[in-house]
Design a protein that fits this description.
Growth Hormone, Chain: A; 16 helices; mainly alpha; MFS_dom; globular
Length: 405
């Protein structure tokens, strides 16, 4: 195996443990921006005077723009310095957070949020960067660590947004996020090592590079299956949290935004469980681990409606879903990262595009179905999507076993 080197003597450029954790922290902060709105979506809607169904367009457009940005920008990571690209996109995110904090009307707020999605590329460049700089036997563990960084960012976003909005207002949440991003812009050059590797120069036009993303997707059915699974998985994730925020802060339930934030703290279990489950997936195989996680998640989602009318009962399904949900993503990425290094970024591009299209659908449907059918309707929607995840994970595991015979 040809290992990347960035040292004059040509030594293998494996990341140190300190660098791995620094990258996980970076991923956490830059990921958080899209999730501050989850516990405060009702407050933002009231602040701009829009309805529950209409406010869902903000996270939906953010996710669609993120999918478009990944499609158009992430493939550049196969040819240009991941470090320089990350710095550029982090600055763009910082400016978008400033725009959201200062927006005076709903259209400008939605525009800033949409542009934020388009330039949120760093969290997806970093795992591809790291996958080329870890020993193969630690790929699952490091992928899981970076996924835990994503989870931590989401946790911080939800918890801090709920508490800040309850004691100040929702705009203070975005000023807080802007300050964090300013810190990341300063910190990132030290978190990512300088790449002194010989750069691959594009052998074709930018258009050909983008077309190659579709060509590679067509050549790798495992990518298409994994992407569809994660698209459904992420749709469940966005639909559940947006609907949960509307449900808990409704007149029927009567909880404040801080309660939604505190409940989101349950996601902290994933920070500790995901790296361990990543090591377990290294041992039993990504496909088998994904199927097991999908079945456990289905059990948790089935409990959402009967246990969904009190804070304490909700802890049970949330624990189950947050325990195994990220593992479905980790195992999907493991399958892609095991393929040839020179195509990993473009394969993960397709994977993440489908993932965020799923997230956009979940955002739009989660709020619209809640507006139409309440908590019962949203729970039925999530159950249908979870059954799809289990079915596809079972198909992928059986297909792989047949191919191995």
């Amino acid at each position: 195996m040809n290992l990347p080197t960035d040292q004059p003597g040509g030594a293998a450029a494996y990341l140190s443990r300190g660098q791995e954790y620094a990258l996980a922290v970076t991923v956490a902060v830059v990921t958080a921006n899209a999730y501050y709105i989850h516990p405060i979506i009702g407050e933002v809607a009231r602040g701009f005077g829009v309805g529950e169904a209409q406010i869902g367009i903000v996270p939906a457009l953010n996710q669609l723009a993120l999918a478009l940005g990944i499609l158009l920008l992430l493939p550049l990571g196969d040819f240009y310095s991941n470090r320089r690209l990350c710095l550029l996109f982090v600055v763009g995110q910082t400016l978008c957070m400033l725009g959201m904090a200062m927006a005076k009307d709903f259209a400008l707020f939605t525009l800033a949020s949409t542009l934020l999605g388009f330039v949120t590329i760093a969290p997806y460049l970093i795992p591809a960067f790291a996958s080329k700089r870890v020993a193969p036997e630690r790929l699952g563990q490091v992928t899981a660590l970076l996924t835990a960084g994503v989870i931590f960012g989401i946790l911080v976003a939800r918890l801090s947004a709920g508490v800040i909005a309850e004691h100040a207002d929702w705009r203070a949440v975005y000023w807080f996020a802007f300050a964090l991003m300013g810190g990341v812009a300063v910190f990132l050059p030290f978190a990512m090592r300088s790449e002194n590797l010989p750069r691959k120069q594009p052998q074709a036009s930018y258009g050909a590079l983008i077309r190659s993303v579709f060509a590679l997707a067509a050549q790798h059915p495992e990518m298409r299956i994994s992407a569809t699974i994660q698209g459904l998985n992420f749709a469940i994730f966005t639909a559940s949290w947006l609907a949960l925020a509307l449900h808990l802060t409704s007149p029927e339930m009567g909880y404040g935004t801080d309660s939604v934030g505190y409940l989101a703290g349950i996601a902290a279990i994933s920070i500790f469980s995901t790296p361990r489950l990543g090591r377990w997936a290294d041992k039993v195989g990504a496909r088998r681990a994904r199927l097991t996680a999908a079945v456990v998640q289905l059990a948790g989602i089935a409990l959402f409606y009967p246990l969904g009318f009190g804070i304490l009962p909700l802890v049970v399904p949330l624990l189950l879903v947050n325990l195994v949900g990220p593992t479905i993503d980790v195992t999907g990425r493991m399958i892609l990262f095991a393929l040839a290094p020179e195509i990993r970024t473009r394969l993960i591009t397709s994977y993440i595009v489908v993932m965020f299209i799923g997230g956009a659908i979940g955002s739009a449907l989660g709020t619209a179905v809640y507006d139409w059918g309440g908590w019962a309707g949203t729970c039925a929607l999530m159950l249908i999507m979870s059954l799809g995840v289990v079915s596809l994970a079972f198909h992928a595991e059986r297909r792989w076993r047949k191919a191995a015979l």
